[in-house]
Design brief:
Layout: H1 5-17, H2 20-52, H3 66-93, H4 96-128, H5 136-155, H6 161-174, H7 178-188, H8 207-239, H9 244-253, H10 256-263
C-alpha cells in the first residue's frame, strides 16, 4: 500500500534526473519560460527602480544602484550554496547531472559576484568617499569570487570530466565556510557596509523601493535557472556527442532540407 506518494514521486524525479536524454528534453521545455519570465520581470523591475521609485534622502540618486547590487550579491551567495549542495549530491550519489549542473553554476556565480563587487564599488564612492575598503563584507565577497574562479580552474585542470567535477565539487564544499562569514560579517566586525535592511519578518525599506528590489531579486533567479539549464544542455551534448540519443536530438531539430544539404 502506497502511503507516501509525494516521496515516491520525488524519488522517481531524482532517478529521471540521472537520465541525460530525459534531462535534455525536460530542461529544453523550461528554458524558454525562464528566459521570458526573466525579461518581463527585469523590464518591470528596472522601470520601477529607475523611474518610479524616489531617490533616497541621504544617498540621492545613487541609491538606484542597489537594484542591481543587492540582487547580484544575494545571487552570488545563493548560487554558491546551490553549487555546493549539488556537488555534495554528486559526490555521495554519483549523479552525473548534478556534477554538470554544479560546474555549470560556477561561471554564472562568478559573474554575479563580479557584478556585486563592481556595483558595490560604484555605490561606495558617493556613499563612503572611496571605491573600496578592506572591511569584512567586501573582503569575504572578494574571497567568494576567488572560490568560484578556483572551482572553474580546478575543473578545467583535468582531462577526464567526471574526475575533474568530483575534485571541483570537493573544493566547493570546503568553500562553504565563507558564506556565513559574508552574511554575518556586518554583525561580527566593525564595517562600513550597512547591515541588512530586509529580514524574513520585517523590512526598513519603503515599499516604493522594496518592490522593485524584490522583483529584480526574483528576475535574477529566473536568469540563473535559464542560464544553468542552457549551459548544462550544451555540456551534455559535448560529453555524449557519440551517443545515439544526441544524434536523435540533433535529427529532430534538423529539417529535411538541412539534412539533405549536409549529406551532400
Amino acid at each position: 500500500m502506497n502511503t507516501r506518494p509525494g516521496k515516491n514521486a520525488f524519488v522517481v524525479f531524482i532517478h529521471k534526473l540521472g537520465s541525460p536524454p530525459w534531462f535534455y528534453q525536460f530542461a529544453g521545455k523550461l528554458i524558454p519560460w525562464f528566459w521570458a519570465l526573466f525579461i518581463v520581470l527585469t523590464l518591470g523591475g528596472l522601470y520601477l527602480g529607475l523611474f518610479d521609485s524616489p531617490a533616497d534622502y541621504q544617498q540621492g540618486e545613487s541609491v538606484r544602484i542597489m537594484y542591481i547590487h543587492v540582487p547580484a550579491a544575494w545571487m552570488s551567495m545563493l548560487i554558491y550554496g546551490a553549487m555546493a549542495v549539488m556537488g555534495f549530491v554528486a559526490l555521495v550519489w554519483r549523479i552525473r547531472m548534478m556534477e554538470i549542473l554544479a560546474m555549470s553554476s560556477a561561471p554564472i556565480g562568478a559573474a554575479f559576484t563580479l557584478a556585486a563587487l563592481i556595483s558595490g564599488s560604484l555605490w561606495g564612492r558617493p556613499t563612503w568617499g572611496t571605491y573600496w575598503v578592506w572591511d569584512a563584507r567586501l573582503t569575504s565577497e572578494l574571497v567568494l569570487l576567488f572560490l568560484f574562479i578556483g572551482v572553474m580552474a580546478l575543473y578545467h585542470a583535468f582531462d577526464e570530466p567526471r574526475k575533474a567535477a568530483r575534485a571541483a565539487c570537493l573544493l566547493a564544499l570546503v568553500g562553504l565556510v565563507n558564506l556565513p562569514i559574508i552574511h554575518f560579517s556586518v554583525k561580527w566586525w566593525n564595517t562600513l557596509h550597512q547591515g541588512s535592511s530586509i529580514s524574513a519578518t520585517d523590512s526598513t525599506i519603503h515599499p516604493s523601493m522594496l518592490w522593485p528590489l524584490l522583483i529584480m531579486a526574483v528576475a535574477t533567479k529566473f536568469f540563473y535557472a535559464a542560464n544553468v539549464l542552457t549551459r548544462a544542455r550544451v555540456v551534455l551534448l559535448e560529453q555524449d556527442v557519440r551517443k545515439a540519443w544526441v544524434q536523435d536530438a540533433i535529427d529532430k531539430k534538423t529539417t529535411p532540407l538541412q539534412k539533405e544539404g549536409s549529406d551532400s
